[in-house]
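Dataset card, provenance and construction

Sequences and ligand SMILES were collected as paired inputs. For each pair, a complete structure of the chain with the small molecule in place was predicted and serialized as structure tokens. The example below shows a pair involving pyridoxal-5'-phosphate. Curators did not alter the output after generation; any descriptive sentences attached to a record were derived from the structure itself.
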Amino acid sequence: MEKLALYGGPKTKITPFGSGKRYGQEELDQLREALEQNTLFYAHGKKTARFLNKFKKMYGSPCAVAASSGTAAIHTALAALDVGPGDEVITSAVTDMGSVIGILFQNAVPVFADIDPHTYNMTAESIEERITPQTKVIEVVHLAGNPADMNAVLEVSQKHGIPVVEDCAQSYLSLYRGKLAGTFGEFGCFSLNDFKHISAGDAGMLITNDEHLAWKAQMFTDKGYDRTKQAHNPPFLAANYRMNELEAAVAIAQLDRLPWIVSRRREYGNRLTEGISGLPGITPHKITPGGESSFWFYMLRVDEKKLGAARDLFADAVGAEGIPCTKGYIARPLYLSELFQKKTIYPNFNWPEDFPQYAHSVTYPQGLCPAAENVLKTAVTFRLNEFFTEQDIEDMIRAIRKVVTGLFPKNR
Ligand SMILES: Cc1ncc(COP(=O)(O)O)c(C=O)c1O
């Protein structure tokens, strides 16, 4: 048995990971055309409209609305669904803050659902437990490219008559029972920040089947302007969440790359699962039954008892083999962050207790979502990249296997 790199043995990964250029001539051509329009305003140029049309076609969705970020897209979806002061929005305890910002800006209350211990998506059971008469929206997060169990979520949504917003920031072209994540709920929301499958630097978008909701969303992203009319008479408070023509130009070219990006990641993620399955103390990233992930990241879990070693030691040992990985994902479930614990969300305001609209007293104690807390203490995250080579994935598998067997001899 080879000595672990952590203890001075040879590293598993001796060649650099595959890398590549995300942006090329196609993006440059689009940008040039955008600049030659002599306007970068979405309602005067053609790029934003073209991007939305392409996206609609790809998703088979009748309506799409551009936004300035994924956070903006989610905020817009909630606003279009009339989320307002005192309403509750159920979302995941394990997600990016961008899932929650829009809820708070609408003066609504985030209610955190617990997650499945191995798919890491919020469960329908936990969602249902948290429904109250104040629940206005169920905001499902498809984490890491893995679609949530939408049949179960929709059953809860239909039973209680509560609309669903899907946060697909990490889940382009993810499939659930053959249908694209983002097409199940009232809105699907996407991000084009620089870390996502596709990037325009920053930007976002929403899809919906409902023309009226699309109109409201459009108004909300553009200060309440209806650009088809002359007079400006905003019907409700709205933000400026506009996409500009430069972002749209890059996004058009990026969309053409998306199927390839997802197919590479899907192949690599599934191969990784195959390669590390059956190892004692390691549970691969479980894909929701009936789902196909687009693997924005790959998160396995360590059973410290079965492995006979701590998660941190395992991650250090894999890192020493030349395979970068992170302990956990976000540092803690969102409700345990300072914002909620120290009630610093709004200045000089004891939120939500001092909120007259708010019918319940919501608390965010440790233990609120036990699975979420446990997952973040025992998971290890690997970034996947479409530019990786098959050799890179085989090296990742070899490193993990080597660490499991080498670091913890009783597992051999
Ligand atoms: C799950 C999730 N939701 C929302 C967002 C927000 O997207 P953006 O950064 O474009 O505002 C992100 C981005 O990291 C995300 O990962």
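Derived descriptions for this record:
The chain has a mean pLDDT of 96.
Residues 238 and 277 are 49 Å apart (CA to CA).
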